[in-house]
Amino acid sequence: MHQGGGTAEPRGHSSLEERINAAKGDIARRLRYIRHHHPDGPFTLAGLAERAGVSKRTLSHAESADGSNLTLETLLKVCYSLGIARDAYFLDEQVFQQVNMELEASSGREAGCAAHVDLLCHLLTDIADSAAQARGVLRALPPEQRRPPGRTAPPGPPGPYGLS
Fold first, then answer.
1. How many CA atoms lie within 13 A of 134 on its CB side?
2. Is 110 inside any structural domain?
3. Contact call for residues 146 and 138 (beta carbons, < 8 A)
4. From the Swiss-Prot or TrEMBL record, what is one GO molecular function term (predicted)?
5. Is 68 inside a domain boundary?
6. Does a structural domain hold residue 63?
7. Cis before residue 42, ω within 30 degrees of 0?
8. How many domains, in total, are found in the chain?
9. Range of the domain at 93
10. Beta-carbon neighbour count of residue 36 at 10 Å?
């Protein structure tokens, strides 16, 4: 004990009150972030509160870093309602970063897949159009000009497009 009657704080460590306030600030920042950046969002306070089964006032206090009514139950309800299985999402910066990367990757994959499918459809359509155009040009050529110089026709029936 030191002369003030309480326990001395270790050097370089903040007081418990400072740590609590810092944790509330971190939770507020993470809650605002996920509310605005979740793949199903952005959510209003009322929308997320309804989805999580908590009051709008509780979420509002949590986002303002007041956190006077903030409980672990509330944090877990919000996580569950957003499909976040990592309970430490609001409490641990590393978990917060990992989950956000996973959410971004999954939403990016869905959007990316749709874009890739669209691109492949356009490419296949262009290939089919080019093949039809080439077939028409080849059919218009006299038979002796249908093969490059030096190549002979393979023995047997004509090819799949009736070209010999």
1. 9
2. yes
3. yes
4. DNA binding
5. yes
6. yes
7. yes
8. 1
9. 15-125
10. 10
Q: Indicate yes or no: pTM above 0.85.
A: no
CATH number at residue 78: 1.10.260.40
Q: Which two tokens stand for residue 5?
A: 């009657």
Amino acid in the structure at residue 28: A
Name the DSSP class of 17: H
- 79 belongs to a structural domain: yes
Q: By 3-state DSSP, what share of the chain in percent is helix, strand and coil, each rounded to 5?
A: 60, 0, 40
CB-count burial class (<10 Å; 0-12, 13-18, 19+) for 47: middle
